[in-house]
Amino acid sequence: MSLRSRIAVFMMCAFICTGFLPMETALGNAQWTLDEPDNITSLSVSEDGSRIAVGSYGAKAYSFTAEGQLQFALEAGNVVTGVAMLSDGSLLAASDDRHLYKADEQGRLQWDLNVKRQVKGVSASHDGSVAAYIVQGSTNVAFIDAETGETIRETDIGIAPKRIRVAPSGSFTAAGATDQYVYLIDADGGIVRKMGVTGTVEAVAAAEDGSVAVGTSKNEVVLFDADGREAGSYPVKDAVTDVDVSGDGSYVAVSDYLGGIYVFAREGKLLWTTEVDGAGRAVAFNKDATALYAGTGSGTLHAYDVSEAIASAESGAVVRTVAWTIAAALALALLILGLLWMKRRRKLGVLRDVWRAKYIYLALLPTFALVFVFLYYPASSGLFHSLYDWNPGGRTTFVGLANFERMLSDPYVTKGIGNLGLLIVTGLAKTLIPPLIVAELIYHLRSKKTQYWYRTAFVASMVIPAVAGLLIWQNLYDPNVGLFNKLLAFAGLPGHAWLGDPDTALWAIIFIGFPFIGILQLLVFYSGLLAIPDELIESARIDGAGLWRIIRSIHLPLLAGQFKLLIILSLIGIIQDFGGILIVTGGGPMDSTYVPALQMYYAATIFNDLGYASALGVAMFLIILIITVINMKFLKTTHD
Amino acid sequence: MQTVPVTKPAAPARKKRSSVRVVPQAIINIVLTLLVFLTLVPIFFMVFSSLKSNAQILGNFWSMPSPPQWGNYGEAFGAIWRYMVNTVLYAVAGSGLVCALSAVSGYVFAKKVFPGKETLFMMMLAMMMIPGVLTLIPSYVLYNGLGLTNTPWVIIIAHAAGGQIFGTFLCRSFMAGVPTELFEAARIDGASELTIFARIVVPLSIPILATLFIMQSVGIYNDYIWPLLTIRDSDLQVIGVGLTVFENQFGIKNLGVQFAAYGLSSIPLILIFAFGMKYYIQGMTQGALKM
């Protein structure tokens, strides 16, 4: 038993020793609103970052200073679909009123081009040397002279473009088309390549080197590098509404319909994220990607200082190296101190033994590398981050016990605990009673061959993959073509949507696997019965004991060890298991089949709330630990 | 560590015991047959329905599949073969790694003396007490950070790292039963450590390694949550997730094809159990009882 307590000490030491480097960044931010609460359709930031152009659904193109002061507003006849702010402060605006406008830095109209079709977007390089627009119902990308509005050339991409963006210097133009492809056009108007994505193209952005970021309806942004290869993909929570990429292609900003605003590093790391009220509509970086502007569906413009997040990505590696160096130095110092101490105590012989066993350590190295990196690290990371609002790669803030407090008020968790209670009670009954009965029956068979055949027949049920078994059971419950309702109909009884009714769903899940002859349990009980010495039974029989008396007074007490083992194993298993529920009902209907482990999975996968998910994992771990400790301390059997 | 005796009684004892049994054999046989039938109902139902078309299932639920729709199996194979091949490859790679790592560390922990042996072994044992719920999400974040998600490695490494704990444990207790004199004799004859490992340890460990390989393979083949969490690309996906995705692939569910897919997905497990049932049962009972 002392072995287990020593294990506990080891675990604690291991958790404490594992190093963590939480990253916390405080970000300044400002916001201002348009004169009317309108959808923002587009944003553009001037090269020096002093001016921001905003296009609105309310047919206006605004020019703001970086501080949020309105410079001028240009009125169009319909929705402004695109804006481009040039370095001289002049503004290009495209509108559904079939016009393309150019206003100078004072807001005076320079020219007004009637293109006779709804203009779907405009974009220009900072200096205005390359300016492109696209119109409804045309397969052309038109390049114009920003000074005069005259068309210089047109590039036919063969399909209607829906989004257009010119790289800051004009080296490349990216056009997202309705055919799920993005076309890259060089400075001379030639098509360099096309790049396909899954889902429809919702937004594009181009960097100087020809890198292209593409936002899709599949809640994803894909970054293609200068050679057209996929350099990274960044998942977001909802359909992408806009993307921007920093001039060098190192950072990608994204907005989505749920109001999420994100900044990703090129290699895919989420550097920073926030949420705005309502849908995020447009995002734009300033030139060096230190500031990020985001426009919302309610006409609010947010300005975020993301320089720290970006800087932390760059310096993160440095900080980490420094921290590791310090840690290594400390470890070395401790080692030397330890050696000195050992020398004083004349215990250096150990070192000789260590050196002699060097090949043994080498042989164990792969094993322990895996153990530490892939088992100890995640376990301690889970314990640690349960106290944090955890955004890997992004802002991770200490929240104390808030995650645990939240658990108590999370209706899905409280409901889940109730469900889990029922699952545990029924699960223990299922685990212990039917296998024990079958084990007794097989044990009492006279022919050894028949015994073998029955055992094999029960084990045969394992050839169905677990998932397939669950799916078959799901089908058995089907209200229309399920076996159960067909049987009921056969008997003249009305059918029932077993999994669709909140009152029966959990019981339907409990019933899965009927008649519950668990193979492991059966084999454990059976070998337990075989191990009972025959003399015991023989003498009991001589004393006149009947079958029931033998089972009650000899079999059951001697199977205590097996009972204990199976109870512990199934408790641990039931608390953790949510795969079956995830497949069969997904927790529904409503919250009727939730369990805490399922809520943990959803917290991590759907809500991206990793800190909360870790806290749920830690809570379940603690409960399992308590069960194990109780098992060790209080349920001692004669075998211990 | 608690131990529960699992030794089977010697043959003569069995004969004697049978004389004291009073339960009518016919009743036992009837009850057991009924239970076997009930246990296997889903399998029978699967085979039965896999040979029917939608019209046959909806129109005449109870009738025999006539004509049997053998084409369902062809269609199902086309839809899931990729998942099956992937999973089998992951299972072989993952289980092979587990066996290699466990054989080495099991031997070392059983037969070698070196400073820190107890500590290191304890560190491995401690991991057996960490439940999967604690590590699931942090592991996902870790693998994601390492860029391993959506690659075969995320499955293989995860199973290798987790499986070798149990494997080392199994191999260690197996090796402990091998007389040390055997290795001493080889050493005196001038065999190097590598030779001893390759010529003595590995051949001796074949039964336990077979058990381990089969246990791990079945485990990987039945895995669902981890690949669901970490694999996005359907070309890399495993059968467990593939079967659930497959269900949603058709606008109208083709039930017969679906059941045929479940049946086909059982083939690797049928093969494993046909050849290695004994090892699997051994591993299962030993693993449970030695904890």
Automatic annotation (TrEMBL), chain A:
The identity of this protein, by name, is ABC transporter permease subunit
One GO cellular component this record assigns the protein to is: plasma membrane
What is the source species? Paenibacillus arenilitoris
**Which Pfam families does this UniProt record tie to the protein?**
BPD_transp_1 (PF00528), PQQ_2 (PF13360)
Keyword Ligase assigned to the entry: answer is no
The protein's matches in SMART domains, at most eight in alphabetical order, are given as: PQQ, WD40
SUPFAM superfamilies, A to Z: MetI-like, Tricorn protease domain 2
Q: Enumerate the Gene3D superfamilies for this protein.
A: MetI-like, YVTN repeat-like/Quinoprotein amine dehydrogenase
Q: CDD domains attached here?
A: TM_PBP2 (cd06261)
Major site of localization recorded for this protein: membrane
Q: Which residues form the signal peptide?
A: 1-22
Family classification: Belongs to the binding-protein-dependent transport system permease family.
Keywords (alphabetical) are: Cell membrane, Membrane, Signal, Transmembrane, Transmembrane helix, Transport
The record gives the membrane topology as:
Multi-pass membrane protein
Query: Taxonomically, what lineage is the organism?
Result: Bacteria, Bacillati, Bacillota, Bacilli, Bacillales
Q: Mark the transmembrane ranges.
A: 322-340, 360-379, 420-445, 452-473, 505-532, 565-590, 610-630
Cellular compartment(s): Cell membrane
Tell me the ranges covered by the ABC transmembrane type-1 domain, including all copies: 417-631
**Single Gene Ontology BP annotation:** transmembrane transport
